[in-house]
Amino acid sequence: GGSADEDGQDVEYTLVRGPNACWRPLSLLRAFDALVSLCEYDNETRRILHLSLPFTLSALVEAVAENVVVALISLYVGTEAVAAYAVVDIVLEVTTELTMGVVDSESTLCSQAYGAGNSVLAGQYVQLCSVIYVLVQAPFVVAWSLFIYDILFWLGFDEETSQIGQDFARVAVFVQVAVGLGEGYHNLLEVIGREVYSAGIGIVEGMVELGMIAVATIVYRVDLITVAYIQLGVAVGFYGINVVITMYMGWMRPHLKGMVGSIAFKNRVAVAQVIKIAAPLAIGSILSYGEWEVLTLFAAHLGPAEVTTWAILGSIWDTFEASTEGIGDASEVRCAYHLGKGNPHQARIS
């Protein structure tokens, strides 16, 4: 194992033998000093907390709003519609978790570029991740647009529910693409210190979407396809609003050359970095969160009602996950920032 002493120099520890064995008093003293330094309320701790609070609040609002949407569909659209909505959502999550590795890599790479003072490179990473994300999503958009009916029917749902799910999926796949592109743009905002604005407009977007769906379902009694079009319209609309506001404020001007003023794919090193970071993130995301989707297949042997229940429980569980993921996301941004500045010791502390 390895650690660092008070001068920031790496120290290699051994388990039993040697001068740096873990049981020796000096090794224990270093470990205690490191623990004390981590507990200090310093600038880095304040920065991580400052980042994590808007991250957590935004994720919580999004998760709670999603649960309310499920409840509205169940109450005012119908049981077949809520079954189709919940199960299609969990099926789409399988490929979304895979492709979101590209978007997640953007946060790390932009943090490194920003820490190194290379605004153009940070902009190129946004362009690369956005284009690669769309390209990777394209075959899944086609697949889910064609085969959701067969999947739902195989899971035990009747023809009516399967057809509702198929019609909904043909719009929902584009919602996923729009949401992913929006998250990629938000990633750069969070890296450059505009995380409060990013969280704020994200919360407003969630509230607007929830309000529109509530009015549409309660007052106008719309069907599930209309709900999907509302989600798509809000996602695309707020992406455009976000771009206009950030450009007007001048926050993106240093990165504009890399984002739209160059062909980022000519930067082979940057392309290789995106693939290198995105691949393990995508695989890790599937391994970490894909078990819920796999268990849905097991629930299918119990019946369609159990599949629907399991899918809805997944939405509720996302709310609990959202309450803790802000700290991790904030630490990830700070670690990548310090690595970009060539400060691995501070990155380790973060």
UniProtKB/TrEMBL annotation:
Q: Does the keyword Transmembrane helix apply?
A: yes
Q: Name one GO cellular component term.
A: membrane
Q: Which GO terms describe its molecular function?
A: antiporter activity; xenobiotic transmembrane transporter activity
What protein name applies here?
Protein RFT1 homolog
Under PANTHER family, the record lists: MULTIDRUG RESISTANCE PROTEIN
Q: Where are the transmembrane segments?
A: 131-156, 168-185, 197-222, 228-249
Does this entry carry the keyword Transmembrane helix? yes
Q: What is the lineage of its organism?
A: Eukaryota, Sar, Stramenopiles, Ochrophyta, Bacillariophyta
This protein's UniProt keywords: Membrane, Transmembrane, Transmembrane helix
Q: Name one Pfam family in it.
A: MatE
Q: Which InterPro entries match?
A: MATE_fam (IPR002528)
As for family, the record states: Belongs to the multi antimicrobial extrusion (MATE) (TC 2.A.66.1) family.
